[in-house]
Write a structure and sequence with these properties.
Elements (H helix, E strand, L loop, with lengths): L8 H5 L2 H8 L1 H12 L28 E7 L5 H4 L4 H5 L7 H4 L23 E4 L4 E4 L3 H5 L4 E8 L5 H10 L9 H9 L9 E7 L26 E2 L18 H22 L2 H24 L6 H7 L9 H13 L4 E7 L10 H22 L6 E6 L3 E2 L17 E2 L3 E6 L7 E3 L1 E2 L6 E3 L2 E2 H11 L9 E3 L2 E3 L17
Parallel strand pairs: 1-7, 1-8, 4-12, 4-15, 5-6, 5-7
Antiparallel strand pairs: 2-3, 4-11, 8-11, 9-10, 13-14, 16-17
Helix pairs in contact: 3-11, 10-11, 12-14, 13-14
Length: 492
């Protein structure tokens, strides 16, 4: 209150929306305190080490970090993980009507009636003590089968790529919701002051004909404050743009300039209560810290040759999936909460016998190498690794059976496979079952929302309790659905 007992004019003039927005500034300033560090802000962390202003996990977490190896375009489960001898026997025969009754497929298929069944392109073999069936397309993944949990009964609601990816990552087919990494950083905060809590990297196999686009909403924060969105690391000599000082500007000068800008922004935040102003301050501070942390992160000179060899020949080339997998390990070592790698090119409508080989060659060894590397370093126990796409591929052919060079499979939302490793997930098991053609789930179905609930659970979050009020409704990642798949959790 001022000396005359009157409210300040900005407060008198503010609307109801501005008043409510100003109430959210405290959360933004808490995040700012976390980024500024103990030297620049008091009480940046609580006595038990949690970021100031951030809630405790709802229960004891089994994982502290998550790495999502997202395969854009939908890997074909019937060619990679879901072994079906009956599909081999019925190669070239029409799909029985009962398998496709009432089902919706993409416009490229229309009705599935009479479509010819296509046997797996490469043979399957059993691996490890678990006896997991894995295709010869993925020999390195087969070698670590005893570390993996294969969920073979996933199903989704979307039949096209962008809506299905959005549903898998944000819980809704329509863009605009926060993604998994954004929810994790909102709910759990960050363990690092020098790198973003949520990092994203993208890659695509060379020579692919797949025209899929990486939309920014795949790692967006939706209606959460924008400080929770993923920060994209690029391939090349400059992983994050605009970090370097302009020519002639010293680090000391940049520091002084940021201090002055932050002072002005804080005054603006106090007057208007816009939480995005606190985000802007935090982003400036993070960028300043990343001038040192990012070059160190990208310097692979101290990585032993034995470690580099785990990831395969592409590991030294920035922008490849192999390089990104190694960077993912280095990021979580430095406290990054969630790393999302997205590799496009799995959309084999007419290229199962050509481009599928390329996709598997580029991703198989790096994915397996990451799991091995994490385990060797003692990081797998508290790092949850997920490998999978947005849906599967049809057991029937798309194209002409007589033209082997152009064999393909269409989108298939009714059954597909994802594997998980580490983070308290039971290793060496397969969960769920599809029918004898890999067409429909017939045992232990797992919906996309169930998978999301399970991932959050392993990181200490009850999926029904982590919510954010927006437009009069409490939203959550799993929408109004989802059950934790307890059968795949270590210890039940």
């Amino acid at each position: 209150m001022n000396p005359n007992g009157l409210l300040h004019e900005p407060v008198l003039r503010e609307s109801r929306r501005q008043f409510l927005g100003r109430g959210g500034t405290g959360l933004g300033l808490a995040a700012l305190a976390q980024l500024l560090g103990p030297g620049r802000a008091a009480a940046a962390t609580t006595p038990d080490g949690r970021p100031a202003g951030m809630p405790r996990p709802h229960h004891a977490p089994r994982a502290r970090h998550a790495i999502y190896l997202f395969q854009n375009g939908a890997p074909t489960h019937v060619d990679l993980f879901d072994y079906k001898p009956e599909l081999q026997k019925r190669h070239g025969k029409p799909l029985p009507d009962s398998y496709a009754a009432g089902k919706r497929f993409s416009t490229m298929t229309g009705k599935a009636d009479g479509k010819l069944l296509l046997a797996p392109v490469e043979p399957f073999r059993q691996h490890g003590q678990s006896g997991a069936w894995v295709s010869d397309f993925l020999p390195h993944t087969g070698q670590i089968a005893d570390e993996l949990c294969f969920v073979k009964s996933l199903h989704t609601d979307a039949v096209n790529h962008a809506p299905a990816i959005s549903l898998m990552l944000s819980g809704a087919q329509i863009p605009g919701r926060p993604t998994l990494g954004a929810w994790l950083t909102y709910g759990l905060g960050s363990e690092t002051e020098n790198l973003p809590a949520f990092a994203v990297m993208t890659s695509v196999s060379k020579g692919t004909t797949c025209g899929q686009i990486f939309y920014d909403f795949y790692w967006g924060s939706g209606f959460l404050p924008s400080r929770y969105q993923g920060v994209k690391f690029r391939g090349g000599s400059e992983p994050v743009l605009y970090l370097g000082n302009p020519p002639g500007l010293s680090g000391e000068s940049r520091r002084a300039m940021l201090d002055d800008v932050a002072h002005l922004n804080r005054r603006k935040a106090e007057a208007h209560g816009d939480p995005e102003i606190a985000t802007r301050i935090a982003q400036y501070e993070m960028a300043f810290r990343m001038q040192t942390s990012v070059p160190e992160l990208a310097d692979l000179s101290k990585e032993p040759e034995s470690v580099l060899a785990l990831y395969g020949p592409g590991v030294r080339e920035p922008g490849t999936f192999a390089y990104n997998c190694l960077m993912a390990r280095r990021l979580i070592e430095r406290g990054v909460r969630c790393v999302q790698l997205m590799h496009a090119g799995w959309d084999q409508h007419r290229s199962l016998t050509t481009e599928l080989y390329t996709q598997c060659r580029d991703t198989d060894q790096p994915s397996a190498g990451l799991v091995v590397d994490l385990k060797q370093r003692g990081l797998l126990d508290d790092t949850l690794v997920v490998w999978g796409g947005e849906f599967g591929r049809t057991p029937f052919i798309q194209g002409n059976l007589d033209e082997r060079k152009f064999w393909g499979r269409d989108h298939h939302p009714y059954a597909f496979t994802t594997w998980l490793a580490g983070g308290g997930i039971r290793p060496g098991i397969s969960h769920g079952q599809t029918d004898d053609l890999g067409m429909n789930v017939v045992g232990d179905p797992v919906h996309v929302h169930d998978l999301q609930a399970t991932l959050l659970h392993q990181l200490g979050i009850h999926h029904e309790r982590l919510t954010y009020r927006f437009q009069g409704r409490d939203f959550r990642l799993t929408d109004v659905h989802g059950q934790v798949v307890r059968a795949i959790l270590a210890g039940g």
